[in-house]
Specification:
The complex is a heterodimer of chains A (439) and B (426). Chain A is an alpha/beta fold. Chain A has helices at 3-11, 74-99, 113-122, 136-142, 146-154, 188-201, 223-234, 282-299, 327-336, 339-349, 355-378, 398-414, 419-425, 433-436; strands at 128-130, 178-179, 211-216, 239-245, 248-249, 252-253, 273-278, 303-308. Chain B is an alpha/beta fold and 426 residues long. Chain B has helices at 5-8, 13-21, 25-33, 36-39, 49-52, 61-65, 95-109, 132-136, 148-160, 179-186, 189-192, 223-226, 240-252, 265-268, 302-314, 326-329, 346-356, 371-383, 413-424, and strands spanning 71-72, 90-94, 113-117, 141-143, 164-168, 202-208, 233-235, 257-262, 270-274, 278-279, 286-289, 294-298, 333-337, 340-342, 359-366, 392-396. The chains are: A alpha/beta (439), B alpha/beta (426).
Chain lengths: 439, 426
């Protein structure tokens, strides 16, 4: 046995922190050691450095020295890549048709393909997902159809997610265990803690599934973030919190959103296992979320994953990000740290992909999206009566019955004579007749 | 034979000590008449002596079993004609015991039901969850951290998964951090998801209204703020029998319900309460006293002040005789307990006002934008030509509930009788 090891063993200091044998004991009924040094802490790392970022692949898709070989096969590799590519295939069409006035709104996933698809691939299909709005990739991974996506964007009769009641990107699907998106930010975070508790209480799903909550670094400023992590860590419930730290909350850069070390630094504040990962490295995201999920379910407690990425696109079709950042910055990021090319280069290095496949994939996906768009363009909207449906379950209250009848009366009175209304009624299946005729 | 409260309800040492200090009814009335110096500090949970002698509370088994609209929920499905009220047991309970009884039944019959909120584990600050954690376990009855937005959000998540989430917000004055979750989320989940998701399994219970010494932040009546959140239901019980039946109905209603319990009634209101599982319908008002000259519409604590006011109207004390002319003393007053604020029972109210031609709405909440404003607007629309007097609202003032001034803020029996007389003489 060498000398330093012997010394270590005798002092027992190298295997445990200095606090394990505190000279003045611990605070009464606590594990907090008493100290005579008035020492302030402001970092969870001892030397004040930031929480490290986990990565597997470098910018050129090569496995880093020291990294573990990724646990994927060709089938999974291709599936990841195809799902990641479907996002820009959809984004390019949907963004442009919004510009043409065919749909009202769109939010792209540009730059975050690895973050969203890599995490989705690490989950079980039945893990309950509560997203924010930029997680269409999770739905695509689980098999949400292009017609369903287009349907929701057009609000047409194929929109089962919202029956035309919500803006685009507000997807949902009970069959795919994806809770319907709502616009208010961060409201899903404490809800996810409750969803996790329901899974824990269900003997058929306890130990098998967890709740998974997605949100951005901006939404993490909301009080609901604190409430959600507090509940899932304390009650506790098996809820995996996944932060897409993409650098911006609309125009607000991350350095104006928080002062601490990102969102990851908050995890230990709740006593939960936390990891920061390179969100543009899909294999790192996959590995990190697999492990996070395992811990979450085993402990029955919250786990936090912070995925560092970059929002290449604008916040939404209502935003022009060049009003607050340089074009060059965006171009540089796309070139230097591209999640799609990092995976593609890795796949090519394994002989699982080539240029011909690339061309074929892009062409096929573009065509599929355009076909779905053409079908959606001509589909009807839901019946106008759906305006009044589903406010309550069970017996409908009198005020809604009366108000529906009031609208019906107005349609009977003006529906034929008033051109703007007559035109508008054309788009609904049934043209509002079910209201007018009182059926 | 269902177990009696004495086996279900295992009071902790704390509550046993408290029970010893609760004076019997006769001492309560005597105390109400004695001087301030002799009576000691007010009970933390509030005390309304007039409620103790209220005729509205059912003090016999027979009257309790035949409460209007009661619907027995028996485990074995009887034919409707077999469902008898007679032959069932009742037990004397105050309002917090009746509420506790309702939750106990919900937890016993529904494996997916859980009860949670601040301090519910040891029995709750108003004793509404006494013994539930001991009986059903800490996985089903548990404390949450101190965060109303967390409680509401957590409850919504549970309910979205089809579970029965019975959440407690410790005082309705503190419900506002949960406002976003309740109004933007709970109320709208079914609608915005095209009916694919819903949180019907959510019930949010919360103590409400004045308690005698609560000041700004232990006395509020925030029901008005939620009236515009279509998709929610709001229920306010007036008594132990009503509270148990309405709470069970609210828990089982396929919509998120905010159940607001007038806290001063927790101990003051005592009656014989059926021990079986029963519901009282949500969305239906109750005509407690029939009449033909004027309709009084209210909910919660003011019901008992109305009772006192009607007695003062019929036989005024000498000091008020001059203010209450003979002509109005025999007026026939119809009193309606609204019970459900949203959706409110417009048909019962309309039918009554068409008969009487006069409406007085009473609530503790402030006047502007209150529940009374909404009801008054709808009634004047429907009954315009039948009205003999403007719809009168008797409410708290548009001020917060100030501690030392409470007796002049919360509508009392005198203000009620004054409003009745004015409306009758319009």
């Amino acid at each position: 046995m060498n000398r330093s090891l012997r010394r270590c063993l005798s002092t027992a200091r190298c295997f445990t922190t200095a606090a394990s044998a505190p000279p003045h004991g611990n605070l009464f009924n606590s594990r907090s050691p008493i100290t005579t040094r008035l020492n302030f802490v402001n970092s969870i790392t001892e030397d004040g450095s930031q929480i490290p970022t986990f990565r597997v692949l470098d910018g050129a898709g090569k496995v880093l020295e020291g990294a573990q070989e990724p646990d994927i096969d060709e089938a999974l590799g291709r599936k990841l890549y195809e799902a990641m590519n479907m996002l820009p295939a959809l984004d390019n069409v949907l963004y442009n048709i919004q510009r043409q006035g065919k749909i009202s709104f769109w939010m792209t996933t540009h730059g975050e393909e690895a973050t969203v698809v890599g995490s989705a691939a690490a989950l079980a299909l039945e893990d309950e997902v509560l997203g924010q709005y930029r997680e269409m990739g999770v739905l695509l991974w689980r098999g949400f159809s292009l017609d369903a996506i287009m349907g929701q964007c057009f609000g047409n009769v194929n929109d089962h997610a919202t029956k035309g009641r919500q803006m685009p990107v507000h997807f949902g699907s009970p069959a795919l265990h994806f809770h319907t998106i709502s616009s208010p930010l961060a409201t899903q975070i404490p809800q996810a803690a409750g969803v996790g508790y329901a899974l824990k209480r269900d003997p058929a799903r306890r130990g098998k599934n967890c709740a998974v909550c997605y949100f951005g670094e901006g939404a993490a400023s909301e009080g609901d973030f604190h409430a959600g992590l507090l509940f899932a860590s304390t009650i506790p419930s098996p809820t995996l919190f996944f932060v897409r730290n993409n650098g911006f909350a609309i125009s607000t850069p991350a350095q104006e959103q928080y002062y601490g070390d990102g969102i990851a630094a908050r995890g230990p504040g709740y006593g939960i296992d936390t990891v920061r990962v390179d969100g543009n490295d899909v294999l790192a995201v996959l590995a990190a979320v697999r492990e996070a999920r395992r811990r979450c379910i085993e402990q029955g407690r919250a786990v936090l994953v912070e995925s560092m990425t970059y929002r290449v696109g604008h916040h939404s079709t209502s935003d022009d990000s060049f009003a607050y950042r340089a074009r060059q910055e965006v171009e540089d990021r796309k070139r230097i740290d591209n999640p799609l090319s990092r995976l593609r280069l890795f796949l090519e290095s394994r002989g699982w992909w080539d240029a011909a496949e690339e061309t074929a994939l892009k062409s096929r996906q573009k065509q599929d999206v355009l076909d779905a768009f053409k079908r959606a363009e001509v589909a009807k909207q839901w019946e106008l009566k759906e305006l009044f449906g589903d406010v309550y379950g069970g017996e409908e209250p009198w005020n809604l019955k009366e108000q529906r009848e009031e609208l019906a009366g107005l349609l009977r009175k003006y529906g034929e004579d008033w051109e703007p209304w007559r035109k508008e009624l054309e788009k609904y299946r049934g043209k509002g007749k079910e209201l007018i005729n009182g059926t | 034979m269902p177990p009696t409260t004495n086996t279900l309800f295992k009071p902790s040492a704390l509550s046993r000590a408290w029970i010893k200090t609760v004076p019997p009814i006769y001492a309560q009335t005597r105390r109400a008449q004695s001087s301030e110096a002799a009576s000691g500090p007010p009970p933390a949970g509030g005390h309304l002596p007039s409620v103790a002698t209220s005729q509205l509370l059912k003090s016999t088994r027979e009257s309790a079993l035949h409460v209007q609209g009661i619907r027995w929920i028996d485990e074995v499905a009887f034919r409707p004609q077999d469902v008898l009220s007679s032959g069932r047991e009742t037990r004397k309970m105050n309002m917090f015991q009746a509420i506790r009884d309702a939750m106990s039944i919900a937890l016993a019959k529904d494996d997916n039901a859980v009860v949670f909120g601040e301090d519910v584990g040891f029995g709750g600050v108003f004793r509404c969850t006494m013994g539930l954690a001991e009986e059903f376990g800490r996985e089903r009855v548990f404390n949450t951290p101190l965060s109303e937005q967390g409680i509401a959000g957590f409850g919504i998540g549970l309910a979205a998964m089809g579970h029965t989430a019975i959440a407690e917000i410790q005082f309705s004055d503190y419900i506002f951090p949960a406002f976003d979750q309740l109004v933007n989320e709970a109320a709208k989940i079914r609608y915005r998801s095209g009916g694919q998701f819903n949180v019907g399994g959510l019930t949010v219970r919360t103590p409400t209204m004045s308690v005698g010494h609560g000041g700004l932040y232990h006395s509020q009546s925030p029901e008005g703020f939620f009236m515009g959140a279509s998709g929610l239901k709001i229920v306010v019980p007036r008594s132990p029998i009503q509270a148990k039946g309405l709470l069970l109905a609210s828990i089982r209603d396929p919509n998120p319900v905010i159940f607001m319990e007038p806290k001063i009634l927790y101990r003051s209101a005592v009656e014989q309460v059926p021990i079986d599982d029963y519901e009282i319908p949500v969305g239906r008002a109750e005509v407690i006293t029939a009449g033909s000259d004027l309709t009084v519409l209210t909910y919660g604590t003011p019901i008992y002040h109305c009772e006192a006011a009607l007695s003062m109207l019929r036989s005024p004390p000498l000091s008020l005789a001059a203010h209450i002319p003979e002509s109005v003393r025999s007026a026939s007053i119809e009193v309606i307990d609204l019970r459900t604020i949203l959706p409110w029972d417009v048909d019962t109210v309309q039918k009554s006002v068409e008969k009487t031609g006069r409406l007085l709405i009473i609530h503790e909440a402030g006047r502007t934008g209150g529940v009374g404003a909404e009801i008054a607007a709808e009634v004047q629309k429907r009954c315009f030509l039948k009205l003999e007097a403007p719809v009168r609202r008797l409410t708290g003032w548009d001020t917060p509930v100030a501690l030392q001034y409470e007796k002049f803020i919360i509508p009392d029996a005198l203000r009620i009788v004054d409003a009745i007389v004015e409306t009758l003489n319009y």
